[in-house]
């Protein structure tokens, strides 16, 4: 079915946004070579915009972005979609509140994934952003729905927008692609800080009631409300 002009405009906007957000992955040193990807749901449509497979970061523009349906089938674009498209699509199909998904192999978060260890909630910023520990998802092979299922099953039981997929790396979600990128930057930052704290001793856990208060304040009070 051809897309209406309004949908085409939205898709063009999202291609610009998603291409630009890939610049945040390199700026924040979350990716090397062509690893890592950002996607955005096209609101109200069974479509998403995602990075093309194997294209270098300095060649990513709105024109190289790929549009697929929510089963990962190519709808528009000159390149094949990212090899992680099936995982992104599975998340959009099963988590209607999610508008953006990000995946990286950022060093410190991936080091926790390699050990299969959740990042404990030992900092106010972990309580703020993740609402508790950053959970570990199952080991899953690339190529079918296993990664997507592992992400969704883990995030459904958690307030965290980030999951450390075992022996693989972090996937993050958000209400839009920018929020998911923010979670990807934050999860790497707290993974690094808690790693360093571990070298020097045992980080102090926060009390559950303080985690709940911090999370509630950050999610509902903090920031510029008119942007929501
Ligand atoms: Zn990966």
Description:
This protein has about 230 residues and is α+β, with helices and mostly antiparallel strands. The protein has a single domain, classed as 3-Layer(aba) Sandwich (L-fuculose-1-phosphate Aldolase), CATH 3.40.225.10. About 45% of the residues lie in helices and about 15% in strands. The protein is built from 7 helices and 8 strands, in the order αββββαβααβαββαα. A hairpin with a 4-residue loop joins strand 1 and strand 2 (about 45-50). Helix 1 packs parallel to helix 6 and helix 3 packs across helix 6 (about 175-200). The two termini are about 30 Å apart. The relative contact order is 0.14. The model has no long low-confidence stretch (mean pLDDT about 95).
């Amino acid at each position: 079915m051809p897309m209406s002009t309004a949908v085409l405009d939205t898709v063009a906007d999202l291609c610009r946004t998603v291409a630009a957000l890939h610049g945040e992955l390199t700026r924040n040193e979350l990716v090397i070579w062509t690893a890592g990807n950002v996607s955005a749901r096209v609101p109200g449509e069974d479509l998403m915009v995602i990075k093309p497979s194997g294209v270098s970061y300095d060649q990513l523009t709105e024109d190289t972005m790929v549009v697929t349906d929510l089963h990962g089938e190519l709808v528009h674009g000159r390149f094949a979609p990212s090899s992680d498209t099936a995982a992104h699509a599975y998340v959009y199909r099963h988590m209607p509140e999610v508008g953006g998904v990000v995946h990286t192999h950022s060093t410190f978060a991936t080091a926790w994934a390699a050990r299969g260890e959740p990042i404990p909630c030992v900092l106010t910023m972990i309580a703020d952003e993740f609402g508790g520990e950053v959970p570990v998802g199952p080991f899953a092979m690339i190529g079918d729905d296993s990664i997507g299922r592992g992400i969704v099953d883990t995030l459904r039981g958690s307030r965290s927008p980030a999951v450390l997929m075992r022996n693989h790396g972090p996937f993050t979600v958000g209400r839009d692609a920018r929020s998911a990128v923010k979670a990807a930057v934050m999860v790497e930052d707290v993974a690094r800080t808690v790693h360093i704290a571990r070298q020097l001793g045992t980080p102090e856990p926060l009390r559950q009631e303080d985690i709940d208060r911090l999370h509630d304040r950050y999610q509902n009070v903090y920031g510029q409300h008119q942007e929501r």
